[in-house]
Amino acid sequence: MLAKPIFQIDMALGYVAWALCVTRYVWPRLKGIGRVEALRAIATLHSFRFFGLAFLLPGFVGPALPAAFAVPTAYGDFVTALLAMLVLLTARERVLLPLAWVFNVFGAADLIMATVQAIRVDLPSVAGQLGAAYAIPVLYVPLLLITHGVAFSLLLRPAYTPARSAG
């Protein structure tokens, strides 16, 4: 089998598997806690996006990985990680919610632009150049994009404060 269909199948199944996992296990739990805490949980996951800088590491990725894809993707992930960390460091809800919007809009746009750029440079045909970073677009990106969708859902709905137990 050629690299392109393998990459496309892996990526499609990454979205399906994560959508099932998030729908079944993550979303029900996030709905049951306050909006701020749910957004912090999502920001925690995204705070690890600094790992996208690995697209710039020779030896970790192949020398023919298109720079038009690797460079903006690496730095977009890095900035998103910093924004997610700012959300985690913010104590006041009045500041946290606008920061969460900035992090979420920037992070989702970064993933969408990286996907568009991957299509432009025909990344699936050179998927072997991703080297060890192959797991990022097929396993990590689907989870990140899905959780951005969850974060948008949380940001657009009214705040919820979980009921306190009596006692």
Architecture overview:
This protein is mainly alpha-helical. Helix content is 68%, strand content 0%. The protein has 5 helices and no strands. Helix 1 runs parallel beside helix 5 (135-156) and helix 4 (93-120) runs antiparallel to helix 5 (135-156). The longest helix has 29 residues, at 3-31. The chain starts with a helix and ends in an 11-residue tail after the last helix.
Structural descriptors:
167 residues; mainly alpha
Write down the overall mean pLDDT. 93
Beta-strand residue fraction: under 5%
N-to-C SSE string, H for helix and E for strand: HHHHH
* Main sheet overview: none
Shape: globular
Low-pLDDT stretches are none
What structural class should be given to the helix and strand makeup?
A: mainly alpha
Q: How many alpha or pi helices? A: 5
The span between the termini is 62 Å
Number of strands: 0
Proportion of helical residues: 55-70%
Assembly state of the chains shown: single chain
Radius of gyration: 17 Å
What would a concise description of this structure say?
The chain is built from five helices and no strands. It is mostly helical and 167 residues long.
